[in-house]
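Table S5 (text form). Sequence records supplied for joint modeling of the two-component complex.
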Amino acid sequence: MESLLTIAVLLPLVAAFVAFLFPADKPKNIRALAILATGVSLLLTLYIFSQFDRTQSGYQFVKSIEWLPSWKISLKFGVDGISMTLLLLVGFVSFCGALVSSEVHDREKEYYILFLALTSGISGTFATMDLFFFYFFYELAVIPMYLLIGMWGSLPPGKHGRTKEYATMKLTLYLTAGAVLALIGLLMIYFSSGTTDIERLQHNIWLASNTQMRAFPLLLFGFGFLASMWPFHTWSPLGYAAAPTAASMMHAGVLKKLGAYGIIRLALPLLPEGARHWANLIAILACFNILYAGWAALTQKDWKFVIGYSSVSHMGYVLLGIATLNVVGVTGAVLMMFAHGVMAALTFALIGFFYHQTHNRFVPDLSGLARKIPFIGVCMVMAVMASSGLPGFANFVSEVMVFLGSWQQGSTIFRVATICAVWGIVVTATYLLWAVRASFFGPFDEKWSMLKDAVSFKQKLPYALLLAVLLAVGFWPRLLTDIIKRSVETTIVSRTGPPEPDKPADVVPGNNLVKR
Amino acid sequence: MGFYAIQLECMLATWGILVLLVDVFKPFPNKRTVGYVMAGFVAVALLWSFCIQPVDGVFFYGMVRLDPLALYFKRLFLLALAMVLVMAAEFSPRIESGVVEFYALLMFCATGMLLIASVNDFILLFVSLELVTITFYVLASYLRRQEASLEAGTKYLILGALSSGFTVYGIAYIFGTTGTTNFDKLAEILRTQGGTPSAPFIFGMLLVLTGLGFKIASVPFQIWAPDVYQGAPTPVTAFLAVGSKAAGFALLLRVLYTGLLPVTAFWNTLVMVLAGATLLYGNLGAIPQRNIKRLLGYSSIGHAGYLLMGVAAVNALGAGAVLFYLGQYAFTVLCAFLAIVATTAATGSDEIPSFSGLGKRSPILGLALFLSMMSLAGIPPLSGFFGKFQLFAAVIGRARTDWHYYVLAGIGAAAVVISLYFYLGVGRAIYLQEAEDASPISVSTPMRIALYVCMGAMIGLGIFQRPLVDASITAAKVFGLR
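The corresponding structure-token record, covering 998 residues in total, follows.
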């Protein structure tokens, strides 16, 4: 029972090794293997979710293997409400990503091996309870991402004047720069606590104030690079634009969430004093994310750039929710990560669907596509509505929670930030509705008469599945918010909140630690 | 009894002489096979070395040690030699004459390296160092009709001779001021002096560090590395990158952490500054390079910088990290050079564009070269990642008491990002660019085995770090650092 989670996480990686042994001239088998592995992994995650004890706040399905005793490192997996939500996200997006990868016809073997390795790296980061393996899985995504974009990507020439090689190199360097910054912060935590066990660090250890103050910005900006925090976001729209469909789905949908997850899982609970100290800065940067990227999206003509900037802008809401440090705000941020992840994956899948046939995703060139591909058109309209925060979709719930949390926080900075964020919704709606109206409606252009819609169940499945998830969580958000809230309360708010006077801090002399 | 400590050295030297003599009286018909057989023999010696138990104590009047550290390095050198012999056999058609002598010189060079692993006295240090360096003078200029190779040999000779002169001059100062050349006695004398040595002693220490700095290609004695790496025959370059570098660090660790440990305050800052400068020079210098061997020359300077980070930390973590790093670095660099030798045999060019489309022309060579580049850059799940992780950990661990180490860690972090750029440049050629000539490249069986061993080690040690970490910690214990 405990091993189920470990299996769900490592299954894609095992499948990648198996695929390595398959002959390259039978790509169908490898594709089937990839769909099977991600599908089984999704089912296992769903099963774990159904068995998840919703009354508990701690880690469940914990499995620990001693790995490196001299460093006190162990391979330890476990889920709480926050990581459970995000593992579900990985499950859905990777399965749908594997399904829509049928458009790849070149070097399929390498493609699926890299895709599976990427999936395992991401779900490993979400499920691990060890600081070292957190970083290990986090960095594991670098090589697959570089190659996926470089080998199977495409970047139509535009004003940006860049090639896909440039885009993938930029993305890789930014992510690595962030990762190395975060590594220094994580090592500072390791040396002042003497342990890599995240659960212990979250509950039993209170680091010295000066360590907290110094390590927090390292973690914040280190993970912020991947969360596309302004002004370190420039790799992101370019990278998505150049990536093949499934890679954009994985990247915008889940990989980007790793950055925010790093802040929520490590920076806030381990360095609560640092978090309180730097919270205002996060809120200000979040506003820049929302408005700056929103405005940038207004001027874009390429569908993928529009969605790319939109996703940078949406990460602003996540960061704002994180900065509030209260239950409603952080819970909203986690739900936002889930909702936006599904929505971004859906949008990129839809763009990939028509781009594969039109070889053109330039909004002014497209017109009236919905007549030829009604199913895709309807899905796109729904995705755009979700993205603009219409009630009924998970995105709405999460955005409202972030606004409430931010307003509740009370200080002037957060009040102003809330107003900016609400204004951001209007901006989002403007560019998304423009893009969808211009390309899917209006007079039909005869040059797109060769378009074929998704007809079979197999073709429709990935889009329908992602939409269903968005609607299900939108109508019944307590499915996720209940478990997220409990974990946020115990791991974050109980530590970042003001210290309770009746529990005096117990100082361990010489060890630089204060136990609470 | 003393010969127990140097049995591996005796084996290598005897085998080298035997091969030379046999070839004089009855020349071998197939020089390539000789190389493979010798590689096999060295592999057996490597296995044999695991039957040798470390001995607590000294041999030959305190000159030689056989502690876990010595054995760790001896195994490393034997491994490198075996791989380099495979490479040399693969390379032999491009050597005009004296192929067997080439193998024999590699054996003699390795003998010197194995001795270096055991050094406990400045006299033996100088003798073994010269054995290594002089054979490298010959080996570097072995392609005697190629200007680049001759230039490499000459450069190495002039700068090497100069640094040897510095070393021996420094040893004279150290002997003159303390009356001993033995590391243990030196440490004892320095301790009784209360950690404040005389000015002439410091002068001598700096001169010795100059000589060692030349071996490891650290700033400011790094100028030779790119030229020699580029010009020398590829197997020799590989041996320089793996063996000579590890030998330099073996000496550096022995000298600094045993003999000169009581005067740490006098060299610690210097090593820190050199580490930072070496990191920046190597990694920035590599960016514009178009020749892969030259690129690896700069990269090897950069890696000397990473390793110096661990040396500068002066703690148990740092010493262990340096040893682990050297161990995994051997596999990584050998993998890269094996792939380069096999590819250039078909393409005839060391320029990076000639590696275009290698992933399609030969999946195994492409994968090997790509993985070794990623391991050099320190990306998981490859072994270079854990090596760098440990080095950074050692520095951050020390930074808690001395904030200057944060600066060093920051430079190291910047270097990692810079290095990823040029390593990915090679990766881009392999996978992202199309080859002009897309004909497949064939790979011989011994080469294939060597490549699989290296790749297996890179991935294996990246995921299951424990065996090498435990070995390096045991070896690093001989210094008694905290």
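Note: Residues 3-500 of chain A form one domain.
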